[in-house]
Amino acid sequence: MRKNIDVNLILDLVRGLGDNFLIDFKTKPLPINMADLRELSRDMDTRFQQELKLKLELAYPQIEWPEEETETAQQLKPLAIPQYWVCDVIDGAVQYVQHLSGWTVNLTLIKNGEVDFSVIYDPILKETFWAKSGEGAFMNGERIVPNKKKNLNEMLAVWEYTHHKKDEYHIYHKMGKSVTNLLEQFLCVRNYGPHALQLAYVGTGRIDLFLQEDLDTTNWLAGLFIAKEAGAEILTTDGKPWQYGSTNLMVAPKGVGQQFLMTINEFNNLKS
C-alpha cells in the first residue's frame, strides 16, 4: 500500500479530466432551464467518476472519498477521517455551461485534518497550479510567489461570494460594504468566478488581494493552500489569522491585508 502520493501521477489525472471537459466546451447549447443544468451536472459527475475518482481509488485505496452529504460539515471543520480527497469537479461551472472561460478542475488531499496537497488545472490556458505541504507552490513546474507591490492604489483586488445563500440580508449588506471599501482603496476590483483559481493567482502575483465575507471553505481549500505555500498571508476580513471554519477570508501578500484594514479605518475617520 502506498504511503506517499505520486504528485506527477495525480497532476496527469487531473489534467486528463480537465482536457476531457475541454473537448466538449461550447459544443452544447446554452442551458435554458433546470433540466438542462441537471443533465450537464450528471455528465460532469459521470466523467469525474470515470476519469479521476476510479483511478485514484485504484492508486490510493487508503484515501477516502466522503459522501456528498458531508459537504456542509466540511465547511466548518475537517472530517474525522485520516486521509480524504476533496474535489471540485468544475470550479466555475457557471462559466463552463455559459460558454465562458474561467473554469478549473480542483483536487485537495486532507491528511489528519490539514491540507497536505492541492492542484488546480485550467484547461483553456494549460496552467497547472499545485502545492505540497512544506514544499512551496508551483505553476507549470515553476515556483510561484506573491507580488511585491507596496501601494494599494496600484493593486488589483477581487471579491467573491457563495451562491448558496439567498435569504440572509445581513450577508449581502456586509458584502456591499466590503466592495465599497475595495473600490475606494484599490486600482481595480474584479469578480472572476472560480474561487480557488483566484486564490492561486494571489500566490503567483496576478491578483493582489482576495476577499470574501461568507463561509465557503471547500471552495477555498485548493487555492488557499497554494497561496499559503507560495507565501501569501491567510487572514479573516478583520485581520485575524484564518482558521478552518472561519466565516470569511482575506488573502494577500504579507502585510497587504493589514495595510488595507488600516487604510479603511483612516479613510472612514476622515469621512466622519
From TrEMBL:
Alphabetically list the UniProt keywords: Hydrolase
Enzyme Commission number, as recorded: 3.1.3.25
Origin, by domain of life? Bacteria
Q: Name one GO molecular function term.
A: inositol monophosphate phosphatase activity
A Pfam family found in this protein is Inositol_P
Q: Which SUPFAM superfamilies match?
A: Carbohydrate phosphatase (SSF56655)
- Alphabetical list of Gene3D superfamilies matching this protein: 3.40.190.80, Fructose-1,6-Bisphosphatase, subunit A, domain 1
Task: Name the enzyme's class.
Answer: hydrolase
The record's annotation in PANTHER family points to: INOSITOL MONOPHOSPHATASE, INOSITOL-1-MONOPHOSPHATASE-RELATED
Q: What is this protein called?
A: Myo-inositol-1(Or 4)-monophosphatase
What species was this sequence derived from?
A: Mucilaginibacter lappiensis
List the top taxonomic levels of the source: Bacteria, Pseudomonadati, Bacteroidota, Sphingobacteriia, Sphingobacteriales
